[in-house]
């Protein structure tokens, strides 16, 4: 037996199948891959560098934020970010006065901080919808392109934010403009059910442009649900709204809350995200900080006269105070402090990160629940695929999924080392194109659950084999600290208003691997 095989046998595998009733996983046989492919190559360790980052942040050039560009970048580096996108809000004063000034600060930050890949993007007010991240390849004309896009296609400037078929078409046209006029554009739908304004048919239409790669599986503002000393408290993720005039009527009231900090579309087994994946097309999830004011910070925004931002497109630099700020609006974390979007890049460049995002080679985590997640599949015919990939097999073949989790080894921002108590391997059917407003798909199940336990090197390995595969499907992975879930079950539950310490309910998710016939 080779040294590699001996190590895998020692590593062990846990996890008999878990019924949805929530029975405890049992210890199973040791992990033995029984394949000739090297484990490192199977998991992509010879091809990918896993880079943590954040695509949704704000500065003093947003009408509702305060940090300098350098403060956002410096804190992102402090918490281990490898890449970052500055996305100040589209707004008349921003388009008029802020874009070039922000770009000058970003270019200076690139020179000062070469250790981070820094984009200049924006938070787009989407016609007939709500918000989305927009960014594209840096270059000499990045500011002028961004300003043109904002001027011509932002709903705050064009007054086309209300829900209508004509405005939905405007949103798709705007994305097509990015496709035609910028290099390597990326669009991500932000906080999709916070206001219920992005219908499933809009997500599908945007996805099919090839530029809108996915949505925030978990929003920023994760500190908003902390219990407050004044007795008040907010909603984790800022999800405290109700259906409005422009909300899609098909969303139930529970869609307007987060579940373990994750959007209802993502957290619901067989929900909107699964229905999009069942179409057989990639639509990826991300996470972010949405940093405006970070909880516990000692910086405050100076008082300014009414109308100051509308006149200048910028707030003065924040000033230091002795008391840490924890009351609203300090509802955010800094980039990578709590939420991380981890991208498998072939190289540490702008193109490497965007290619990884577009390919769905992404997993996301809250509160440092896992230091790393690796997730691959191989067939009995010798083919392999990893996160975001597609594995083509013959009907009747066996497909084995292998996962590796490096357990947390350092304290997170709460001062404690989180424990990953369960990993769920989720299986869903690929049924082909569905009706545009399909928001549910049957047959999505937890194929197997695993209980990670410490192992030398702090990495645990598991596998699951699907035998005699007869129809296409996808698999994805989620993990939890196990603190909050449905009674007698394993599904996440709604966060409690004003009583949602985010560090007490941690989850992580991967994007799927598709198994094609």
Automatic annotation (TrEMBL):
NCBIfam families in the record: TAT_signal_seq (TIGR01409)
Statement: the UniProt record of this protein carries the keyword Signal: yes
A GO MF label: 5'-3' RNA exonuclease activity
Biased composition (Gly residues): 231-241
Signal peptide: 1-28
Keywords (A to Z) from UniProt: Signal
InterPro entries attached to this UniProt entry: PHP_dom, PHP_domain, Pol/His_phosphatase_N, Pol/histidinol_Pase-like, TAT_signal, TAT_signal_bac_arc
Superkingdom of the organism of origin: Bacteria
Protein name: Secreted protein
CDD domains in the cross-refs: PHP_HisPPase (cd07432)
Region (Disordered): 225-245
